[in-house]
Amino acid sequence: MKLKKLITIIMSLALISSFLGCSSKSTNNSTSNSNQEQKQIVLRLSDTHPDGFVTVRADKEFARLVEENSNGRIKVEVYPGGQLGDEKSVIEQVQFGAIDLVRTSISPLAEFDKELSALMLPYLYRDTEHMFRVLDGAIGEKIFKNLENYKFEGLCWFDAGSRNFYNTKKEVKKPDDLKGLKIRVQESKMMMDLVKALGASPTPMAYSEVYSALQTGVIDGAENNWASYLSSNHFEVAKYITTDEHTRVPEVIIMSKITWDKLSADDQKIIKDAAVKAGLYQRQEWQKDEEAAKNQLKDKGVKITTLESNSEFQDKVKVLYDEYGKEYKDLINEIINTK
């Protein structure tokens, strides 16, 4: 009887041991798979510019650096040409974590953080170097910190150049030379008020219509950065351009805060470091592309008027600071006083 009982106990123990062994193996496999899933990270980055454009080249440099520094564990897939949607809709998807990253102008982001509108005031920055001393310093850090309130993580700053006036009529050396000219502007109240303050007549119009409007005299001029002035062929019908540099609107790569918070501190550092390097790369590439555009335009007979100072233009638009920057006077003064 005792022997039979002993055999039963031994068999029961063997069954329990076998069950525990299988359970342990299953748990280990599950943990291994879970770790593997955590290690392999794929992020999607959206850009509205076409493949080959300087921002997309920088996006791809960012992706390369992330993959390299994570030993292939983190991959960033770049979707240029608005494949994932227009800028506004993509930003909204980034906010809710449906898309991980977007390269965007700060203009649509100002709809979330009104303080960003202060960064777009005309003649705010002395030059490119001044703007990036502002953005790469404490002011830029504060702006990125504020974006966290809207579920965005700011990663780096891109250059989008300066916008300049060009026209079909004459060389513009001072604000009075713009008087009476019909200037195409974006459908923006601040841009319309800027043109009015300089004595010209603002004419909102779709970008696709500008060439024919310049050609037929519906408008006398427009404004844009060097690359766009060249690529749009507006120089063919508007041969006079003035480097007044009235507006600089920086761009950013932002990440969904939802995605960001899921990453380990080490992975966050990999992504942030890669973004900062990609930002510096983009700025250098932008300057190269801009100089190449200027040289091409000179060769095509464009009359380029380089101003020694745009202070006369700046004085004319100070009234805009009272209207559009009255809530951010401290920030504006901090920007202006940045050395």
Automatic annotation (TrEMBL):
GO biological process: transmembrane transport
SUPFAM superfamilies (UniProt xref): Periplasmic binding protein-like II
Recorded superkingdom: Bacteria
One Pfam family recorded for the sequence: DctP
GO terms of molecular function: carbohydrate binding
Alphabetical list of InterPro entries matching this protein: DctP_fam, TRAP_DctP, TRAP_DctP_sf
Signal peptide coordinates: 1-21
Gene Ontology cellular-component terms listed: outer membrane-bounded periplasmic space
Keywords: Receptor, Signal
Signal listed as a keyword: yes
NCBIfam families, A to Z: dctP, TRAP_S1
PANTHER family to which the protein is assigned, alphabetical: DICARBOXYLATE-BINDING PERIPLASMIC PROTEIN (PTHR33376:SF2), PTHR33376
Protein name per UniProt: Tripartite ATP-independent transporter solute receptor, DctP family
Organism for this UniProt entry: Caloramator quimbayensis
Lineage: Bacteria, Bacillati, Bacillota, Clostridia, Eubacteriales
